[in-house]
Structures are given as structure tokens and as C-alpha cells.
Design a protein that fits this description.
single chain; about 325 residues; alpha/beta; six-stranded parallel β-sheet; 10 helices; 12 strands; about 20% strand; elongated; disordered N terminus
Length: about 325
């Protein structure tokens, strides 16, 4: 009986070792499968993409995924980065595309390397014109939210009846469709809610997505619009709004003659904690870390669990104001 019991214990211990070894092998296999890269536009150090990277890294650590993050400054640099991460053994690539025109080239490289591809947060197509799976916001919806909020602020301020000239500065990225969806959505919602406002009083300004560029383009535009008494400002992101508001302030336009509605709210804390007047009256907040987390999770589910990438994964936005608790802001 004692020998039999000893043999049973030994067999059980052996089974436990085998099971543990198998689990370890499975874990190693999952980790190897879940090797991925996140390629982000730097846009001069835009805080939004820094927060995307932060959320992505946190999610990768939580899941046990092998994640490489790289920022790029040009289309050529991003295409080179795609080659680099494929050659280093990445099984999946998440891309914030530098320019949608290089999307087909990125998709071709990924297909040739047998690498999964996910767009985040700007959509782009492959060589067949088919949309690459994307984690994104509903750009038209958040744009419409900005426009509706601007209309409400415009009405609240009584500017329609105040007299003088009022114009909108719409700070845009013409080559980026998701940006244009936001500003187009803002314009449509605003004009619908303010039927007396002339579409011709919306001044379109191009920038590169950064605060400094928005500042420069607004400064130049101001030279041709010295007759304007009050300005409304919206854009693709907080950088576009705050940059334009800064230029207007530097140009002698007081905060009481400015209404800016941000998109992202990543710069809201700085504006609202200054202790002085700011033209940024509200924002549609987006948590960029959620963008990063959701993108990594979707890619991990494909690589480690064989769950197909959804064609579109949406992350939401919400209205915030200077009265919103700072802990609830993505800044």
C-alpha cells in the first residue's frame, strides 16, 4: 500500500510538472504570436499621440504582448519603419497613417510579410480600395458635437444680436479624411443650428496638426481679417483650436471676443488652470489612451486568440467644460 501510494504521489507530481511545462509553453507561444508594433505620427510631439502610446504600452504589459512603439515624421520614414518592424519579426502592425496616400503601400508590405494590419485612428485603404480594419472615433459624430456645442455657446453669448462682424476659423487638415469629417461635421451642425449665420463667414485654414502650425496659419489669416470683431474657433484637435486662439489673443483679440470648442481636451487643463481668461469655453473630450488600449487589445485578440479584427471599432467622446473635475479630463 505504501509503495502504491508513493507511486501515485510520484505520478501526480510528474503530471503536475508536465502540465506546468505545457502551460509555460502555451504562454511562450502566445507571447511569440503577440509580437506587434505601433507606428504613430509624431506631429511635432502632439500630446494626443503620446497618450495613445501610453495607453498602448499599458495594455500590452497587461496582456503580456510584445509591443514596439515608434513615432515617424514623414511618409518615407513611416514606410521604412514598416519594413523595419516586419524584418524584426512583428506579427501585427498598428498604424496611425502619415498620409492616407501611402496606405496601399503599407498594406502591400504587410501582406507580403504575412503581417496583420490595423489602422488607428485614421482610416485608409489597401491596394484593392478595401478599408483596412480600424479603431477610430466617429469623426462626423464628434465633429457634429463640436458644431452643436459651438452653436449653443454662440447663442448663450448673444453674439447673433450683438452687432459687429463674427467669423469662424475652421482649422483643417485637408489631406486627412478623419480630420475633414470632424470639421465638416462641425460646420454642418453649426449652420443647421444657426440658420442666420452665413456659410461665407467660415474661414478655412490649413495646418499640419500641431499647435505651432495653427498659431502661424491663424496669425497670417488675421492680417486679412482685421475688421472681424469676434471669432469662433474649431479644428481637428485641441492643438488646432488652442493654437488659433493663441494667435488671436496675441493679435489683440480679448478672450471675451473668442469662443473656442476643443476636440480631444488634452490641452484643456493647461488652458483652464491658467487663472486668466481663455477663449476655450468647452471641448469634446477624447481619451487617447483608450485609443491605444483598444488597438492593442484588438490586435492581441487576433494574434493570440485568433479573433478576427472588427472592420470598425469606435471609441467615444463627451462634452467637458471648465467646471468638469480635472480627474475626468484626458490631460
Amino acid at each position: 500500500m505504501r509503495r502504491a501510494r508513493t507511486l501515485q504521489v510520484a505520478l501526480a507530481a510528474g503530471a503536475l510538472v508536465v502540465a506546468s511545462t505545457a502551460c509555460a509553453a502555451d504562454a511562450e507561444s502566445a507571447d511569440a504570436k503577440a509580437k506587434m508594433a505601433l507606428l504613430l505620427r509624431s506631429q511635432g510631439g502632439t500630446t494626443y499621440f503620446q497618450q495613445v502610446a501610453k495607453g498602448a504600452r499599458a495594455e500590452a504589459k497587461k496582456l503580456g504582448a510584445d509591443l514596439t512603439v515608434q513615432f515617424t515624421n514623414s511618409s518615407d520614414e513611416q514606410l521604412s519603419a514598416v519594413d523595419t518592424v516586419i524584418s524584426s519579426g512583428a506579427k501585427g502592425i498598428i498604424v496611425t497613417i502619415q498620409d492616407p496616400s501611402i496606405g496601399p503601400s503599407v498594406a502591400t508590405k504587410a501582406k507580403a510579410g504575412d503581417v496583420a494590419l490595423l489602422a488607428s485612428s485614421d482610416p485608409f485603404d489597401d491596394t484593392a480600395g478595401k478599408a483596412v480594419p480600424v479603431v477610430t472615433l466617429d469623426a462626423k459624430k464628434v465633429g457634429s458635437d463640436v458644431g452643436a456645442e459651438m452653436a449653443a455657446q454662440y447663442e448663450k453669448a448673444g453674439w447673433a444680436k450683438a452687432g459687429g462682424t463674427v467669423k469662424v476659423a475652421s482649422v483643417e487638415l485637408p489631406k486627412v479624411s478623419t480630420c475633414m469629417d470632424r470639421t465638416d461635421g462641425a460646420r454642418s451642425a453649426f449652420l443647421k443650428a444657426t440658420p442666420g449665420f452665413k456659410k461665407s463667414d467660415i474661414v478655412k485654414l490649413s495646418y499640419d496638426g500641431t499647435l505651432n502650425s495653427a498659431n502661424d496659419t491663424m496669425s497670417s489669416a488675421l492680417n486679412n481679417h482685421r475688421d472681424v470683431d469676434r471669432w469662433l474657433v474649431w479644428s481637428c484637435n485641441d492643438e488646432g483650436v488652442v493654437g488659433a486662439l493663441t494667435a488671436l489673443t496675441n493679435g489683440g483679440i480679448g478672450a471675451d471676443r473668442l469662443l473656442g470648442v476643443g476636440l480631444g481636451a488634452n490641452l484643456a487643463c493647461d488652458q483652464w488652470d491658467k487663472g486668466k481668461g481663455t477663449g476655450l469655453v468647452s471641448a469634446i473630450a477624447l481619451d487617447p489612451a483608450d485609443n491605444g488600449r483598444m488597438s492593442v487589445r484588438a490586435m492581441y485578440n487576433l494574434l493570440a486568440k485568433d479573433k478576427a479584427l472588427p472592420p470598425v471599432t469606435i471609441f467615444p467622446g463627451e462634452l467637458v467644460t471648465p467646471d468638469t473635475p480635472r480627474a475626468e479630463l484626458p490631460c
